[in-house]
Specification:
Elements: E1 8-17, E2 24-34, E3 39-43, H1 50-57, E4 65-70, E5 73-74, H2 80-90, E6 91-95, H3 106-116, H4 121-134, H5 150-162, E7 168-172, H6 180-197, E8 200-204, H7 208-211, E9 216-221, E10 224-230
Parallel strand pairs: 3-8, 3-9, 6-7, 7-8
Antiparallel strand pairs: 1-2, 1-4, 4-5, 9-10
Helix pairs in contact: 3-4, 3-5, 4-5, 5-6
Bound molecules: adenosine-5'-diphosphate.
Residues 17-18, 24, 26, 44, 46-52 line the site of adenosine-5'-diphosphate.
Length: 236
């Protein structure tokens, strides 16, 4: 029997921006395999290609050369609609800036991806409630972002990212706007979602403290993977 395809596989991926004099190679041959259930911290200095690789993994951009396979499917061979479908059904996104709709309740923010998916109002309501409960915010469902702390806003954003039950959560500096205590709380939550729900997590971070929550750390330097190592796990 063949071994199952890895969840994510980048092979010899390059990305070149611009042309002629302004040409810049942001990725210079990236090989990366990520299995289902991993929690990977993507690290490296500014300009090393972290965002570029996350955009490719998130199907927001395509490699210039090389291949990206998601659950065995060659992403570059999918058309725009198929890539949008892959994003909608399998990926969840969390950003540093929360990106919540301002005049809209936590509940409605979390329901939004379900609206795009054409779920009924009753299902949207129920699933959003469950997601808010999972991040510990069920009692705040009717509040708008301005009425919530930064940590709570990021919890809403996480609920919105997981309400569709994605296979992969892509997080770009999710604690970049939070103080140390809130950052640890958010990382504990993400770690729990990884542990108990089996959501694969790919997270860009500058902070070694936050990267310690991951099970694997991949460091980029100059558009390539420099080091790739497992984080020793505490045994109970
Ligand atoms: P990181 O996230 O590690 O800071 P990025 O992936 O954002 O790095 O960027 C890698 C390099 O590619 C940087 O030098 C950046 O200036 C360049 N770059 C990123 N996006 C573009 C773009 N759209 N056009 C031109 N250059 C870009």
């Amino acid at each position: 029997m063949n071994a199952p395809a890895p969840l994510i596989e980048l092979a010899a991926v390059t990305k070149t921006y611009g042309q002629g004099q302004a040409m810049f190679q942001a990725l210079r041959g990236v090989d990366l395999r990520i299995d289902s259930g991993e929690f990977v911290a993507v690290m490296g200095p500014s300009g090393s290609g972290k965002s570029t690789v996350m955009n490719i993994l998130g199907c927001l951009d395509t490699p210039t050369t090389g291949s990206y396979r998601f659950m065995g499917a060659a992403v570059e061979q999918l058309d725009r609609d198929q890539r949008a479908m892959l994003r909608r059904n399998y990926l969840g996104f969390v950003f540093q800036g929360f990106n919540l709709l301002a005049r809209t309740s936590a509940q409605e923010n979390v329901e939004l991806p379900l609206l795009y998916r054409g779920e009924t109002a009753a299902d949207r309501h129920r699933l959003a409630r469950e997601a808010l409960e999972l991040v510990g915010l069920d009692r705040w469902a009717d509040h708008t972002p301005a009425e919530l702390s930064g940590g709570q806003q990021q919890r809403v954003a996480i609920a919105r990212a997981i309400v569709t039950q994605p296979k992969v959560l892509l997080a770009d500096e999710p604690t970049g706007n939070l103080d140390t205590q809130r950052s640890h709380e958010i990382m504990t939550l993400i770690r729990e979602l990884n542990d108990t729900r089996g959501i694969t997590v790919l997270m860009v971070t500058h902070e070694p403290d936050m990267a310690e929550f991951a099970s694997r750390q991949v460091h980029f330097v100059d558009g390539k993977v420099d080091t790739d190592s497992l984080v020793p796990q505490e045994t109970a």
